[in-house]
Amino acid sequence: MTSESFRPLTTLLHRRAASTLSTTTTNTLRSRIHFATRPNPTLPRRRIKVHPPPPGPPTKDPISVLTAAQIKALDPSGSRAELFSRNNPQAIRPGDIVYVRRKNGEPFSGVLLNIRRRGIDTSILLRDQLTKLGVEMWLKVYSPIIDSINLVQSKEKMARRAKLYYMRKLKHDFGPVRGIVSDWVRKSYAAKKGVDKAGQSAGQKGQKEQKAKKAKK
Amino acid sequence: MPPRISITPCLRRLWGNSCPFRLIQPPGPVNRCRSFTTTSPNTFGNRPKRISSSGSPELLEGSKAASLERKRLATRPGVLAVKKGMTAIFKPNGRRIACTVLQLERVQVTAVKTRQKHGYWAVQVGSGLRNPKNVTRPMLGHFEVAGTAPKKHLREFRVKDENGLMMPGTTFAADFFIEGQYVDVKANCKGHGFAGGMKRHGFSGQPASHGNSLNHRTMGSAGQSQGGGSRVLPGKRMPGRMGGHQVTRPHVQVMKIDKELGTILLFGPVPGPKGCTVAIQDTILGPPPVIPGAAATSSEPAVVTA
């Protein structure tokens, strides 16, 4: 009964009652008022067993491990990662002209304004001028729909900035890269004559080359 | 209010149970339905059953038993995980799917709630690590009984019936969930402190110029005048504390499981900041997941896998 646990008033009454009715039991204060006491205060406290914890996870930063695994799966040779590596002297840098071929859709080329390094989401910003209209495009470097990323022309002098947003201004805008890129594409096909390039959407020059190859066969 | 002290037992002792006038019923709750109920009173109070189905041929709608039966609950308990951050998965067709990385840290079953003793079925799950010297003695005893080390976080996961219960001490692994299944995710969202009307409710604010003085982001009016009730109506949206409460994201797909790392990748974002504890359980909006292996349930402190 809950009323038993805390009755200061009634214990006083009980003490008086005990004296008047002369009960045989001599109730000590301790046994009447229920405190949270131990059965035998002189004995040491029960030792509580603390079980050992299970092993924790192998790493507290699983994202870097997952990213490394994903990059390895999407870029097994490591060539894509090397293209944008900080340590590689032949890497693509901001200010270079880049030509990107995709599995579906037209290839895109432009001046590299920005390399955004975010692990698996590493992306590049290319800027081109198509019929006097500035067009920028973000491309995920490790995306499976990107067939190849090629350096067309590197900047002679290193850009003194990592992000070249000043090139959006008319004064610093590079302009259309179509001429430079088409020259490069022609030269690159001429250099790789005879190598089968199945499934790649190429320019007109490339298609002519393929037709010529077929005619030869 | 001071506790009600009953003097009737004392008086009874004084008069030796031969009191001249009739005593009132002794205080304290009385389970008048004891003859009808088969369950013992639950831990949280000896409240008598108001609606008992024992006299009727069918389960009465208002009874506790009917309530438990119709309640939409998962079959299996859930898991506590730590939100580590976000990443993305690239599908072969080029689609990029943003995912949240959640990691399991020493997740074990610490206790079990039963219908007989507590009035419902649930599994108490603990995660994390706590220095035993910082844990109170009552809690140390609780973990001792469970057979686990002291945990930092504890949470109950309600289950449909006794089939969902697990042995205390069972460790959860990341492959408790299956790739492709749907889960409900619960976490405390990010707290924004005392937020203004514009942030909290999307109020448009006031003009930046044209003579506006000191009131660019204020609420403006709080309602009408005498015609609108001569007061500010209850529920008027105003600045106040924003965030820091529990948010549930239902029906979220599990994209990837990594058992060695102990990570679960969930589709999309998850409430809460990085490092927060997140509760993941099979979704109630849909059928329970089909577990390929046999039911790997309680068999001593074992590692629980799907």
UniProtKB/TrEMBL annotation, chain A:
* GO BP terms: translation
For this protein, the record's InterPro entries field holds:
Ribosomal_bL19 (IPR001857), Ribosomal_bL19_sf (IPR038657), Translation_prot_SH3-like_sf (IPR008991)
Q: Where along the chain is composition biased (Basic and acidic residues)? A: 206-217
Chain segments carrying region Disordered: 37-60, 193-217
Q: Which UniProt keywords apply?
A: Ribonucleoprotein, Ribosomal protein
MF (Gene Ontology): structural constituent of ribosome
Alphabetized Pfam families for the sequence: Ribosomal_L19
Q: Where is the composition biased (Pro residues)?
A: 51-60
GO terms under cellular component? mitochondrial large ribosomal subunit
Q: Which family does it belong to?
A: Belongs to the bacterial ribosomal protein bL19 family.
Family matches, as PANTHER family:
LARGE RIBOSOMAL SUBUNIT PROTEIN BL19M, RIBOSOMAL PROTEIN L19
The name this protein goes by in its record: Translation protein SH3-like domain-containing protein
Taxonomy of origin reads: Eukaryota, Fungi, Dikarya, Ascomycota, Pezizomycotina
Automatic annotation (TrEMBL), chain B:
Q: Does the keyword Repeat apply?
A: no
Gene Ontology terms: biological process: translation
**What segments bear the compositional bias annotation Polar residues?**
206-218
Q: Which Gene3D superfamilies match?
A: 3.30.160.810, Translation factors
Compositional bias of kind Low complexity: 52-63
Name the keywords, alphabetized.
Answer: Ribonucleoprotein, Ribosomal protein
Q: Specify the superkingdom.
A: Eukaryota
Q: Where is this region: Disordered?
A: 37-64, 201-245
Q: Which GO terms describe its molecular function?
A: structural constituent of ribosome
GO CC field: mitochondrial large ribosomal subunit
Task: Tell me its family.
Answer: Belongs to the universal ribosomal protein uL3 family.
Descriptive protein name: Large ribosomal subunit protein uL3m
